[in-house]
Amino acid sequence: RKQQLLQLKELPTETLDGHSVSLLANVGSLNEISHLADIGAEGVGLFRTEFMLMNASTLPQEKAQYQFYCDALHLMQGRPLTIRTLDLGADKEIPCLTPGDELNPALGFRGIRYTLAHPEILTVQLRAILRAANHGPIRLMFPMLNQVEELDMVFELIEQCKRSLNQEEKGFGALSYGIVVETPAAVINLASMLPKLDFISIGTNDLTQYAMAADRTNPDLTRQYPSLSPAILTLIKMSIDSAKRQQVTVSVCGELASDPVVAPLLIGMGVDELSINLSALLEVKSVIRATNYSKCIEIAAQSIKKTRIEELNRYISGLI
Ligand code: PEP
Ligand code: MG
Asked: Is the pTM of this model over 0.90?
């Protein structure tokens, strides 16, 4: 089976009737990026940069971060690299930079909330990324961003970084910008944010956690935290409909995108890109290549009508 799948790596990701989608990879290290070509991933759709801090004793300086992103771009060989700014807090514990004691860390000071409150952390990362963008295509996205004011603050910081880089005569490149859509508020507020964005990436892991009010790390809540549910489908559909109205690219980077059974449904709903764990990428490609786009649309239309979690999951798993 593995050998069979490997034969797909050079083939295009398209349905039997010729509808193309991009298959990108979720990565957390340079080592994972170095394996992209082995499986024919078209790029990185989510680079979890907080992983670089797992074993660090302090936040790396701008020079070290710049070198790190340049090394990543070198391994990408011209393919697009989607970097997520540091997503600290809640389930992502980074020893050298833990936001602190909170009663409800998942509802607390995490993601872009934390880094906007610590511009000395975000500025270093933004400057390093802007400079690295001189050497290859980078897409930048922000985690846990709910509200257009937060986006304004991020872009203001980016403008400041560009001004100071100019003054210091340090080169930088152009970036594409997106947000990780991972809270219900972000879905609801998309219309006001999309004019400032090139893409959105739906983070179904946290979007499910916040939509269902169920802790993603609590093993007692697996029934209350289903990976596929009518609620999450409705939120995905709302996001896609808003993004399409403003011609913004839609990616899905949560675990849901790595489930081969769910890929035709997401494609039928209008997703342009799936960002997937390396180990699942070729399996998802094989399913897409064996499906008709017209069937994907039918699956999406049927799925969105299901009101019960169990009924929806039975329908989707019965398709293969
Ligand atoms: C998500 O929340 O769906 C996501 C892709 O990011 P993470 O799992 O790193 O929070
Ligand atoms: Mg997340």
From this structure: yes
